[in-house]
Amino acid sequence: MQIKLSEEQLLLRETVRRFAEEVVRPRAREIDASGEFPRDFYDRAGELGLAGVAVPEAYGGAGMDTVSYCLVIEEISRVCATSGVILSVNNSLVCDPILDFGSEDQKREFLTPLASGEKLGCFALTESDAGSDPAALRTTARRDGDDYVLDGSKIFITNGTHADLAIVFATVDREKRHKGITAFVVPCDAPGLSRGGHEYKLGVNASGTTELVFDGVRVPERFRLGGEGDGFKVAMSTLDGGRVGIAAQAVGIAQGAFDEAVTYAQQREQFGKPIASFQAIQFYLADMSTELDAGRLLTWKAAWAKDRGKRFTLEAAQAKLFTSEMAQRVTNKALQIHGGYGYTRDYDVERFFRDARITEIYEGTSEIQKMVIASAVLGD
Amino acid sequence: MPTVAADPTAGVGFELTEEQEILRGEVRRFAEERIRPGLAERDRERRFPAAIVREMGEMGLLGMLVEERHGGAGFSPLSYVIAVEELARVCPSTAVTMSVSNSVCCWPIAHFGSEELKRRVLPALASGAGLGAFALTEPGSGSDAGSLQTRAERRGGEWVLDGEKAWVSNAGYATHYVVVARTDPDAGKRGISAFVVPADAPGLEVGEPEKKLGLRASRTAPLAFRECRVAAENLLGEAGQGFKIALATLDHSRLGIAAQSVGIHQRALELAVEYARDRVQFGVPIGRHQGVGFQLAEMATRLEAARLLTRHAALEESGSRAGRLASEAKLFASEAANLACYQALQIHGGNGFSEDYEISRLYRDVRVTSIYEGTSEMQRWVIARHLLLENPARPG
User: Fold this and answer.
1) Residue A67: which of B12, B301, B312 has the nearest Cβ?
2) How far apart, in whole angstroms, are the C-alpha atoms of residue B210 and residue B111?
3) Is A363 labeled as catalytic in the residue annotation?
4) Which parts of chain A register pLDDT below 50?
5) Where are the alpha helices (DSSP H) in A182-278?
């Protein structure tokens, strides 16, 4: 066992941190308030290789490992969780399934522009009545000659307002439940595909979350990812990777809030001394630091496990469960340390506190993670 | 992205080396075959397993961090925490006996002792012919170790110790005690020194063993020093360095207690999983009920977090963040293990409240992990102090 970032990873982290501070931070508060999708941020991130960090260079990516990917998501989320999730979705939920399940032709046609940041992707699985139970989805894919025709609607699609390509899950036979689910790559300008309006959310407000409606959307067979009925496997395997990205996002949000809290506690004076000299505040900081370090190690372990090429479902679920709940506690304490100021939009901790909340929900709720972990522990 | 030449010594990896896996397997086998039999009886009778402790010495487990030239096994801190975890998984009492000798006796001698002292004392301790202990705490001085009252006065070629020590693990079975005493009453924390006191030193008395809630197969007793004479060569480091030595020793020994907590946590999870699979209520194994299954998931997740913090702190033991990381590991692992034993007992229902079930002993044993080697409150204090030093105040 060794935990020592390589020179390359240290340089990556430094580069991304500078980018985050110089490009992302100045607009973070503004896009949170307006909900305006930061497409310019995505374009510049793509130029740095951040749209496909762990995608091989042959397909337009940066060719790095998954720990490096976690460093990127953490550093971006440390200043802006919205920007963090935009990248995490493109990397984990869009590039990865094409890399893992796509044909050589599909990788050249779809993956290369996504991993290079030329195009933006989204992942369309959730429906109004199919959240934690995606096998209940109702969007249909009907075979028609050499094409498939998609009908139905998807909700809560991150990047949805601005995506160029969508990974869409639909069923070829609802009777078959999860065995009927099939994955497709769908260009978002396909006739019959329409997008809803901006979803105003508690946090990560500028991540382009919207509804996608499919009304007789026709895609050729070569846009199908894997075989008919493989979609559920594609979705589950993709979400394992997505959970590593969200774990890194949660670590980043918590780190951002923690840094603000340490600074504020030393600047703010009450009773004639910095509040950092009171034991209550010191003990909050100690607990926050401890949980943060634990969460980062769990995240890196899941990332390492992913790169070993074996199943890493348990590691990903544990990292995601722990870090998301940790981020909730850490941002809450960071806000508390800021007192009334922390409750205002003049301080970033207010945003971090709102942003952290979703990490316990998307890419599988905490309850779904616990189902996954309990089943692994019990050997079911 | 700019590219840089790869450094083969760097990287993030979580697998143990072959040597560490072999050590883990050997310690687990020893613990299952030699320590587990008779466990409940020793706990009930508060009996110290002297023969087993000697065997641990023969295996090299009592001088794990001592260099080979001083008779030790020369293991890394990571190997050490792996061994402590495996022992604690079976018997937390035996694990603390072992970790005390390694961490708070051999370790300060190896780090602060003169070459002559090391040669004289360490081979016996490391081989299991001897056993080590550490006497810092006093009846009136616990978390505030700097307020200790035991005195040591230089008289000719000897130091003469007078005072009382409390909560000394291995007392009575130890052959050597590292004792911290005040040598200059006017110099505060700089007036404290550390000594190696042989068990047969004249004037050293071992008091009645404590009757403890848990860890009953480990021995804990007070010590009294009545004009106890120790050779001048038994001073550790220099006069006045004792407080520094004590704090450095505790920074290190927290790794042992973190590892002990991880071992207890591991066993609590195993017992809870086994019970949740076998016990049927409402027609299904209770593990299938989310109220139980989700608790198992939480226990397993916190266990992994605790183990990673502990192993990472062991890897970083000579790094600049060592003190903070050791305290974080000890704080998190001990609190998580306490919670895990609570949940595991809860999953056992009424049966868990019976001495017939192993979890009832673990529930008692685990309680001290968030107290000794620095309470959780002291760990938070240490962590916060490091954090504020690492992040100096920016102008407001």
Assistant:
1) B12
2) 30
3) yes
4) none
5) 231-267
